[in-house]
Amino acid sequence: MNSMNILLIGLPKAGKTTLLKTILNKYSKKTGFFTNEIRENNIRTGFEIETSKWNKWLFASTTFDTPHKVGKYSVNIDTLERILPTISTFPSEDILFIDEIGPMELLSHTFENFCMNYLDAPNLCIATSQLSVNNFTEVIHQRSDIIIFEITPENRDSKMIELIYTVDSLYLNK
Questions:
Q1: Fewer C-beta within 10 Å: the chain N or C terminus?
Q2: For 119-151, how does the pLDDT look when each residue is reduced to its tens digit (9 = 90+)?
Q3: Residues in Cβ contact with 136 at an 8 Å cutoff, skipping those fewer than 6 apart
Q4: pTM greater than 0.85 (yes/no)
Protein backbone atom coordinates (compact mmCIF):
# COMPACT_ATOMS: atom_id res chain seq x y z
CA MET A 1 0.00 0.00 0.00
CA ASN A 2 1.75 3.11 -1.22
CA SER A 3 -0.95 5.77 -1.33
CA MET A 4 -4.10 6.85 0.42
CA ASN A 5 -7.45 5.92 -1.11
CA ILE A 6 -10.90 7.47 -0.77
CA LEU A 7 -14.14 5.55 -0.26
CA LEU A 8 -17.49 7.32 -0.68
CA ILE A 9 -20.17 5.38 1.19
CA GLY A 10 -23.89 6.01 1.44
CA LEU A 11 -27.35 4.72 0.80
CA PRO A 12 -28.56 4.31 -2.79
CA LYS A 13 -29.52 7.68 -4.34
CA ALA A 14 -27.35 9.62 -1.84
CA GLY A 15 -25.35 11.16 -4.70
CA LYS A 16 -22.11 9.15 -4.54
CA THR A 17 -21.79 8.68 -8.30
CA THR A 18 -22.72 12.29 -9.06
CA LEU A 19 -20.13 13.49 -6.56
CA LEU A 20 -17.46 11.19 -8.01
CA LYS A 21 -18.19 12.32 -11.58
CA THR A 22 -18.04 15.99 -10.55
CA ILE A 23 -14.67 15.53 -8.84
CA LEU A 24 -13.19 13.49 -11.69
CA ASN A 25 -14.23 16.13 -14.24
CA LYS A 26 -11.36 18.24 -12.84
CA TYR A 27 -8.77 15.69 -13.92
CA SER A 28 -7.86 14.47 -17.39
CA LYS A 29 -5.74 11.51 -16.27
CA LYS A 30 -8.04 8.83 -14.88
CA THR A 31 -8.83 5.15 -15.33
CA GLY A 32 -11.84 3.23 -14.06
CA PHE A 33 -15.56 2.83 -14.53
CA PHE A 34 -18.97 4.19 -13.58
CA THR A 35 -22.14 2.18 -13.10
CA ASN A 36 -24.89 4.31 -14.65
CA GLU A 37 -28.63 3.86 -14.23
CA ILE A 38 -30.72 3.04 -17.28
CA ARG A 39 -34.20 4.54 -17.16
CA GLU A 40 -37.20 4.01 -19.40
CA ASN A 41 -40.26 6.23 -18.86
CA ASN A 42 -38.62 7.50 -15.66
CA ILE A 43 -38.41 3.96 -14.23
CA ARG A 44 -35.01 2.38 -13.55
CA THR A 45 -34.74 -0.77 -15.66
CA GLY A 46 -31.05 -1.54 -15.30
CA PHE A 47 -27.45 -0.44 -15.17
CA GLU A 48 -24.67 0.03 -17.70
CA ILE A 49 -20.95 0.13 -17.11
CA GLU A 50 -19.13 3.08 -18.67
CA THR A 51 -15.34 2.98 -18.68
CA SER A 52 -12.89 5.86 -18.72
CA LYS A 53 -12.28 4.89 -22.35
CA TRP A 54 -15.94 5.86 -23.07
CA ASN A 55 -17.09 2.29 -23.73
CA LYS A 56 -20.53 1.31 -22.43
CA TRP A 57 -21.98 -2.14 -21.80
CA LEU A 58 -25.31 -3.31 -20.41
CA PHE A 59 -24.55 -4.87 -17.02
CA ALA A 60 -27.84 -5.50 -15.24
CA SER A 61 -31.43 -5.32 -16.39
CA THR A 62 -35.03 -6.25 -15.78
CA THR A 63 -35.31 -7.09 -19.50
CA PHE A 64 -33.01 -10.11 -19.72
CA ASP A 65 -32.51 -13.20 -17.61
CA THR A 66 -29.30 -14.59 -16.08
CA PRO A 67 -28.68 -16.95 -13.16
CA HIS A 68 -27.26 -13.98 -11.19
CA LYS A 69 -29.87 -11.77 -9.54
CA VAL A 70 -29.73 -8.76 -7.24
CA GLY A 71 -33.23 -7.63 -6.39
CA LYS A 72 -35.26 -7.39 -9.58
CA TYR A 73 -32.16 -7.16 -11.78
CA SER A 74 -30.47 -9.95 -13.72
CA VAL A 75 -26.72 -9.33 -13.67
CA ASN A 76 -24.38 -10.15 -16.56
CA ILE A 77 -21.16 -11.12 -14.77
CA ASP A 78 -19.50 -12.08 -18.08
CA THR A 79 -19.83 -8.48 -19.27
CA LEU A 80 -18.11 -7.15 -16.15
CA GLU A 81 -15.34 -9.71 -16.40
CA ARG A 82 -14.72 -8.82 -20.08
CA ILE A 83 -14.50 -5.11 -19.23
CA LEU A 84 -12.11 -5.29 -16.27
CA PRO A 85 -8.99 -6.24 -18.28
CA THR A 86 -9.47 -3.13 -20.47
CA ILE A 87 -8.98 -0.90 -17.41
CA SER A 88 -6.60 -3.05 -15.37
CA THR A 89 -3.43 -1.34 -16.59
CA PHE A 90 -2.94 2.37 -16.15
CA PRO A 91 -0.26 5.06 -16.12
CA SER A 92 1.24 5.96 -12.74
CA GLU A 93 -0.18 9.49 -12.94
CA ASP A 94 -3.84 8.40 -13.37
CA ILE A 95 -6.46 8.66 -10.66
CA LEU A 96 -8.19 5.29 -10.41
CA PHE A 97 -11.93 5.05 -9.80
CA ILE A 98 -14.49 2.35 -9.12
CA ASP A 99 -18.22 3.06 -9.14
CA GLU A 100 -19.27 0.97 -7.39
CA ILE A 101 -18.19 -1.76 -5.04
CA GLY A 102 -21.73 -3.06 -4.75
CA PRO A 103 -23.72 -6.28 -4.55
CA MET A 104 -23.96 -6.70 -8.33
CA GLU A 105 -20.26 -6.25 -8.95
CA LEU A 106 -19.32 -8.41 -5.97
CA LEU A 107 -20.94 -11.43 -7.58
CA SER A 108 -17.59 -11.65 -9.42
CA HIS A 109 -14.41 -12.81 -7.68
CA THR A 110 -12.51 -11.28 -10.61
CA PHE A 111 -14.00 -7.94 -9.57
CA GLU A 112 -12.80 -8.41 -5.97
CA ASN A 113 -9.24 -8.95 -7.26
CA PHE A 114 -9.60 -5.92 -9.53
CA CYS A 115 -10.61 -3.77 -6.52
CA MET A 116 -7.66 -4.91 -4.45
CA ASN A 117 -5.26 -4.22 -7.35
CA TYR A 118 -6.61 -0.68 -7.64
CA LEU A 119 -6.47 -0.08 -3.88
CA ASP A 120 -2.94 -1.51 -3.64
CA ALA A 121 -1.61 0.57 -6.55
CA PRO A 122 0.58 3.62 -5.85
CA ASN A 123 -2.11 5.72 -7.59
CA LEU A 124 -4.87 7.53 -5.74
CA CYS A 125 -8.05 5.43 -5.98
CA ILE A 126 -11.54 6.79 -5.35
CA ALA A 127 -14.35 4.25 -5.00
CA THR A 128 -18.03 4.27 -4.09
CA SER A 129 -19.80 1.67 -1.98
CA GLN A 130 -23.13 1.20 -0.32
CA LEU A 131 -23.45 1.93 3.37
CA SER A 132 -24.12 -1.69 4.24
CA VAL A 133 -21.06 -3.88 4.60
CA ASN A 134 -20.28 -7.49 3.78
CA ASN A 135 -17.09 -9.47 4.35
CA PHE A 136 -15.32 -7.92 1.37
CA THR A 137 -16.28 -4.29 2.02
CA GLU A 138 -15.51 -4.71 5.73
CA VAL A 139 -11.91 -5.58 4.79
CA ILE A 140 -11.76 -2.41 2.68
CA HIS A 141 -13.24 -0.27 5.47
CA GLN A 142 -10.59 -1.56 7.89
CA ARG A 143 -7.62 -0.71 5.64
CA SER A 144 -5.27 1.90 7.08
CA ASP A 145 -4.96 3.59 3.67
CA ILE A 146 -8.69 4.37 3.31
CA ILE A 147 -10.30 7.73 4.01
CA ILE A 148 -14.07 7.20 4.30
CA PHE A 149 -16.58 9.91 3.45
CA GLU A 150 -20.21 9.14 4.28
CA ILE A 151 -22.43 10.85 1.72
CA THR A 152 -26.07 11.77 2.30
CA PRO A 153 -28.42 13.96 0.24
CA GLU A 154 -28.16 16.53 3.03
CA ASN A 155 -24.34 16.70 3.22
CA ARG A 156 -23.22 16.01 -0.35
CA ASP A 157 -22.74 19.69 -1.24
CA SER A 158 -20.57 20.37 1.80
CA LYS A 159 -18.69 17.09 1.31
CA MET A 160 -17.92 18.19 -2.26
CA ILE A 161 -15.67 21.00 -1.01
CA GLU A 162 -13.94 18.71 1.49
CA LEU A 163 -13.46 16.00 -1.17
CA ILE A 164 -12.01 18.39 -3.76
CA TYR A 165 -9.51 19.60 -1.17
CA THR A 166 -8.63 16.02 -0.13
CA VAL A 167 -8.28 14.74 -3.70
CA ASP A 168 -6.16 17.74 -4.71
CA SER A 169 -3.92 17.25 -1.66
CA LEU A 170 -3.46 13.53 -2.22
CA TYR A 171 -3.13 13.68 -6.01
CA LEU A 172 -0.87 16.68 -6.31
CA ASN A 173 1.40 15.56 -3.44
CA LYS A 174 1.81 11.91 -4.42
A1: N
A2: 999 999 999 998 888 899 999 999 999 999 999
A3: 101, 106, 112, 115
A4: yes
